[in-house]
Specification:
By secondary structure, the chain is α+β, with helices and mostly antiparallel strands. The chain is built from two helices and four strands, in the order αβαβββ.
Length: 78
């Protein structure tokens, strides 16, 4: 999970961070990414191309998380 301070939200910062992480994963040859999202972040991840990959699960004893997955195209260039 990653969070932005409320004043930093909706400025494209989260998308830029995620894009950098996704590009690095592709460089490493990863073919898919998996994550657990909070309910509020589901639309963010869906806009980035993630698909739900199972039922909600409890995390940390109190947080309900929603699993997502996204297929990547490997990019072995550095």
């Amino acid at each position: 999970m990653f969070y932005l301070a409320p004043g930093a939200q909706r400025q494209g910062i989260g998308k830029m961070i995620h894009t950098a992480l996704e590009e690095k994963a592709a460089q490493w040859g990863m073919t898919s990414l998996h994550l657990d999202s909070t309910a509020l972040a589901c639309p963010f991840y869906e806009a980035l191309g993630y698909q739900p990959s199972g039922p909600a699960v409890a995390r940390f004893g109190v947080l309900q998380c929603f699993p997502y997955a996204k297929q990547l195209q490997p990019n072995y260039s550095l």
